[in-house]
Amino acid sequence: MVEEFTRLSDAVVPRLYSLLLDINFETSSFSGVLDVAVEVKQETKTVTLNSRELKFLSSPVLKSQDGVEVKSNSTTTNEKLETVSFEFPEAISVGKYELHIEFEGLLEGKLCGLYESQYISTIDGSTKRIATTQFEATDARRCFPCWDEPAIKAVFQLTLNVPSNLRAISNTPILDESTLKDERKLVKFDKTPIMSTYLVAIVVGEFDFISTFVDEVEIRVYTAVGNAYQATFALDVAAKGLKFFTEYFEIPYALAKVDLIAIPDFSAGAMENWGLITYRETRLLCDPESDSLSSKIDKAGTICHELVHMWFGNLVTMEWWTHLWLNEGFARFLQFLAVEDQFPEWKMWDNFVNNVHYPVLISDSMESSHPIEIPVKDPEEIKEIFDGISYAKGGSILRMLNNYLTPEVFRQGIVHYLKRFSYRNTQTEDLWQALSEISKVDVKSFMEKWTSKIGYPVVTVEEIDDSKDEISLRLTQSRFLANGKKASDDTIWSINVVMRSPNGEQKFLLAKETDVVTLPRSWNDSWIKINYGHYGFFRVSYPDSLLQKLMDPISLQILPCIDRLGLQEDCFALAAAGKIPITSALEILKAYQSENDPNVVSSICSCLNSVRRLHSGQIYGDTIDDLINRQFEGLYRQLGFEEKEGEPVSITKLRTMVLSALSRHPDVIAEARKRFKAFIQDPEKNKIPGDRRGLIYSLAVKYDGEEAYNAVLDLYDKTPLQQEKQRCMSALAKATDPKLLDRTLEWSLSADVRPNTAYVPVITVARTSYSYQTGWLFVLENWQRFYDKFPTGMKDVLGHVVLAFASNFTSMKNSDEIRDFFEKNPFSEGKTKIAQALELITVNSERLQREKEPIERWLNDWKSKQN
Ligand SMILES: [Zn+2]
């Protein structure tokens, strides 16, 4: 019989967990004594809570308020449901009790629950051991038995028994510290606010830190001993971020301190434990010498993202994981607001459209996508929704709503919502309600379909010739699918269509399948940009007449960069789905000949790369490289390879984009190889700036064989910086010699590579057109070794690896191979990604058949016109 997942009963609920944990590095284990104040709300003989891989040392005891103790007479664990049930001889009547439980568990390197991480000290070369936690979504139960559901909030008071030379850190400040025998100490922490179990955190180890205050709140950034110099950037961003959100939300930060700590072995990017935010090192620490601009932008984003959660997620929490987007969508959207505030020169909203909005429009166009709100049950399903839909689509539809309601009204609605639900749990509907009360707009009817339905629409525009003076457009919406098919569902979204001409702006709410909008007379004969600003989460299909009128405003850059970017993204997506000829998408690039905005350049490059990947095995494949080179080489001539002193950030960014677009251009290749040789000969004299390192290392490995390969491997071994190690790993995956490629993949599975970064080489190989086939065979042959190498908390990342390989495939044979392979090798942690992979291969295969002939003809014609 298959046991159905059910949520915990609310017959008995926790109010205060008093937890004493004894952490023992010598035996790689921990033991705990938990006294939890519970309220019995319905008479029961059994208390059931969550527990996983814990051993119970004695029979739990239930103590009533008048001191009567009852011992449980049986303890039953259920591995499938991850629960433990304590049965008592008599029914327990309604009232308040204290439940006493003693247990123990293992301290392993699983990267979930309470686990061990290590680092090598840069000061004395010794190994430093750390005990740390990662509980979201469902792994608090691996550390102590608990009601491990976000809605079952309680207060936590932790006490840790640890070696006396180590620092113990938790959510709240230390209340009391006392020395024990055998060089151990007892550290008692202040009570937490009422909160969910997944936000509890513990870190024990040797660390340095730097700190500052924002109002009364102390902010510390902790690093491995000797690395505090890498914390300056993070501390500055966090201090400004905390101030920004305190003002934006009009609610003070709830705790006395917030710590940000870099953990050497970490499964996610970062985790928003209340008061003790944990980060992967590469998401927090910045080396002033070698960090690139793009990595600083990413780090500032992650730092602010976690700070948003102190309110969105921690203070107000989703009632169940189905509403995860209330955490992640908000954090994704508001992190950009805070970073934009600190670094206006970074143009964060242009970055948002390029790196958040458009990528998720691509993934959400698959039939195998899912709605933002999706019923989830067991831990594996829950883990799978920490994906682009919750984060990026969630963030994108909030940007849309922010624009629709206007930023200030949106903010006031958010403040209202957070104040109303502080220390409580919510569902999506509660948010709509609060926003409606402030805005006086029916937010639910505007937003409901965007969160409850799968996918998004394309708005097809037709000009109506009604012989009147005015111009009328017929707008028709239908779900956009990457395979170009008609969707089986007939969702009608509420679409705020913003239209712009040189003579003004007009908005139109398209809430039917088809509607007609009449535009002012003054708009006759002028260009009309639809979805102006690309706030709307949809694509636009223009009639040729309107599209042609947009070419001049694009080439003259009258249209803002977001609109130039969005227009070509939509055209390439429509072409990929077979809605317009691929040659039409290529034609419009002529209007982008003098494009010089970094995000537009990057987006054109990724659209062309997707064409290049699909056609890379064809005889005309190389001509696509020529086309890409021709598109960007003018910019390269202007910008050069080297940064000029005092140049604006936008130019630095543009150069990085252009060089990466031109990674197959002979001049760029030659320059990179030359610089790498010089750098290896004399690294001090011939420094490579951070912005250029990744590209130069990769091109050196690709073109200079074993000598460069060994040099990069040596750089990896010698650097203490994780960011630099990551660059080296990607570069080593760029080898062209199959023997070297094999060596990289073997090495990624060896003890020389930390399990939490083992995915970097293999995913780089998957994204490399000349090596993915060799890499795929290696993965299939070594599947079990990859599975074992990836820590328990990161098995799902292997699903991303499979998807990355599959995105190259154009033959249904590959699809059969993947299906057969995973039938024989069940991989439940990656089932969504496998479904997406299979769908993508079908889309690619149909697309290639459709595009082959026209693209070859178009390219031959293009080639004949080049000198
Ligand atoms: Zn988050």
* CATH domain fold name of one domain: Immunoglobulin-like
Gross geometry: globular
User: What is the rounded Rg?
Assistant: 28 Å
In which range does the helix fraction lie? 40-55%
H/I helix tally: 26
How would a crystallographer describe the biggest sheet? Answer: 9 strands, mixed
CATH architecture designation of one domain: Sandwich
Q: CATH superfamily name of one domain?
A: tricorn interacting facor f3 domain
Q: Structural class, from secondary structure content?
A: alpha+beta
What is the topology?
Elements: E1 12-24, E2 29-40, E3 44-50, E4 55-56, E5 61-64, E6 69-71, E7 74-78, E8 83-92, E9 95-106, E10 113-120, E11 127-134, E12 155-163, E13 167-170, E14 174-180, E15 184-189, E16 202-205, E17 207-214, E18 217-224, H1 232-249, E19 257-263, E20 270-271, E21 276-280, H2 293-309, E22 316-318, H3 325-342, H4 348-363, H5 379-384, H6 388-405, H7 407-420, E23 424-426, H8 428-439, H9 443-452, E24 457-464, E25 471-479, E26 495-501, E27 504-510, E28 514-519, E29 529-530, E30 539-541, H10 544-549, H11 551-555, H12 561-576, H13 582-588, H14 598-615, H15 621-639, H16 649-661, H17 666-681, H18 690-718, H19 722-732, H20 738-748, H21 759-766, H22 772-781, H23 783-789, H24 797-806, H25 812-824, H26 831-865
Parallel strand pairs: 1-12, 18-19, 19-21, 22-23, 24-30
Antiparallel strand pairs: 1-2, 2-9, 3-8, 4-9, 5-6, 5-9, 7-8, 10-11, 11-16, 12-15, 13-16, 14-15, 17-18, 20-21, 24-25, 25-28, 26-27, 26-29
Helix pairs in contact: 1-2, 1-3, 2-3, 3-6, 4-6, 4-12, 6-7, 7-8, 8-9, 12-13, 12-14, 14-15, 14-16, 15-16, 17-18, 18-19, 19-21, 20-21, 21-24, 24-26, 25-26
Zinc ion (ZN) is lined by residues 272, 305, 309, 328, 331.
